[in-house]
Description:
Elements: H1 10-29, H2 36-46, H3 62-76, H4 82-95, H5 100-124, H6 130-148, H7 156-169, H8 172-178, H9 183-207, H10 217-252, E1 254-257, E2 262-265, H11 273-325, H12 333-370, H13 374-386, H14 397-415, E3 420-423, H15 425-428, H16 437-447, H17 456-461, E4 475-478, E5 481-483, H18 488-496, H19 498-510, H20 513-519, H21 522-527, H22 569-583, H23 628-639, H24 641-646, H25 661-680
Antiparallel strand pairs: 1-2, 3-4, 4-5
Helix pairs in contact: 1-2, 1-3, 2-4, 4-11, 4-20, 5-6, 5-12, 6-7, 6-9, 7-9, 9-12, 10-11, 10-12, 11-12, 14-18, 23-25
Amino acid sequence: MFQITKNFSSGTRNVVKNIASEIVRECGKQGTTLSAEVASLGVVIFCLDPANKLSLTSQNDRSVLENFVRYCVHKFLDGQSPLVKTLEMQVFFLNNSIDPERVLKKYQANIDEKAQPLWKEIMEVENPNKDEQEKIFKKIMVYINMTYLLGSPTNAKVLLETSHALKSVVSQADLADFFVLKKKARAAQLKTIQEVVCGIRVFNKDAGLCGEGIRDIQADLQFAFENTKSALADRLESIVSREKKLANVLYTLYELDVEEDKIKLVLPEGIKEENFHYLKGMLTLNLQHESYVKNLMKILNQVKADIDVQLKEFRKVLDAIHEVVQYRTAVPTEKVFPQFTQVSILWQSLLNCIYMLIEINKVNENLSLLANMRLCDKIMGQIESKAAIRKIPKETSLAIQGLMKEMLKSALPYYGSHSLAIVSISDLVTSVSSTDMSSALCLLQASATPITKFCPYLFLVGDGLLIPSRINAGFIKYENVLLSFSSSECAKRFLSDIEIYFTKFMNILRKHPEVVIFFDVYDIVSSYRVTDSKKVVAEEVAAVQNDCEVQTDLHPIPYNKDPNYTWNIWDLRRQAIKLANLKNCRTHSAQTNISFHRMNANLQTANPKENSCQTKCDAFTNITKHDASTECEDAEKIIGTSAIARCGIKSTQPLNDIFTVPYRKYAEKKKSDEVKKKDAS
């Protein structure tokens, strides 16, 4: 959401989002338009006020939430109030900070979005014919001009020069090979072609040979920088002038009562108390606007330094190419193409500098629109016509510094030097010698945080009144916060009891969310815990709870610990019963501690084989060898030729191949039977 919420958990962010949505909804019902981001920022800061009793990290009662939403809606109902306008300006600047990476990513995404259709057509074409290749060739020319801003794609001269440059890099055969590549390789090849063609065109522009439509990048950068610098300087001058006028007008409308710690309003006829508070809020808005404009000027100086470095390198590379091609009609590509690629990279870097200047101007214009000062100028004009404007007196810094040293002599024994001390300018600005105080003061003005530049006592008694302090008088460091004062009177009163006044100062900060953001002290305010002191604090502040962890040694000395020891006798009895039960139990197929590492028992089967059935091998016994021819003749006599024929055996078939062992046994038995019958007869 914002930098101040970077450490918030997702649950806390959801709480803030839900409360902000409720505030936006309630404001909408009453006809006020409020952005969710402004509401969210208000929720984060308003919950610091203990009077609201809201916690973002714990559960809240419904009545507390309703009261908090009602309080915020009341603050946001007036869309033209200084509070809302300041928060809107802060949200805008936080969301549009001039971060080079973010800016370049934004503009590059815009260019890629416009060139995406062409890139898609170049990447997705497959096996194009000659006519289609010619069309893709033209699309590549247009794509290069669009991505590197080398001229209008509708200009015929621009396309002609790009065509000549592209043909010097990619031949017809190379183009055919280009379409054979896969998408990833094709994209990488296209990027290389782009860089070389861009470098060729920029070099031709520098050589004065051609360069239709290509901008003079050096002149454009110089012109843009001067215009941006002039616009920021004029804006800053008008803001500072209005701030001084506002501070003097406000000083005219009040008198400081140090004894009662308050300011008494002295209002001319026709000027209301609401006008004083409105001008006070507009002073905060102007101070925040001034801070942002100075931030833009600081970024502008960084961009100028980058421009000078990039232009110097750009000129160096171009001169190197001129030396290579000056007296030659043909140059090897491996010698000059890498330099053309370097030219295209530097060209893109210079374009990025232009994008940064454009973004700075946009932010400056939007900040001016958000800081609408018409009503403020009108009220100041009415006051100037009815009262004599007094200027804020400037007390010498030596008087304030002497008073602070005197007051700290009595306070140091109680607080100690570690929590309360005087800090001089030379202590903060070590890069400048102690004699050159004017330079040190300028550096401190530029680098000091806003909280150190305004008087905390006037902010306290004026309920958010920001009057510049005399920082050249030095600072008081308390609770790691540097404080300076506008006068010795304010310093004396604040240091008379710095603990209670600093607590009140923090309480007033909690009620002004725009000042917390302006001072950039959210972490300090949110973590500051008010405790009982030697005096009773006027306003009760809710306690802040923080989760913390402490790690200590469990046993500082060595020890012997029995892991099986137990103090409970019932645990011992339960173990005895368990052992007795186990003695009478039997386990089946159990896996024990000893066998845990073995393979689980599974059903083992033989894998099926594709072989035929295996049987015992055929064998035979050794018997008496008989004459086959005799056996065949005897069989034929016994069986007869008709029986042989009935068996389907041809008479011409050799009987050696027909009769087997059973037939021979049958013939032998028949013959023995006939012999026995003959003997019997």
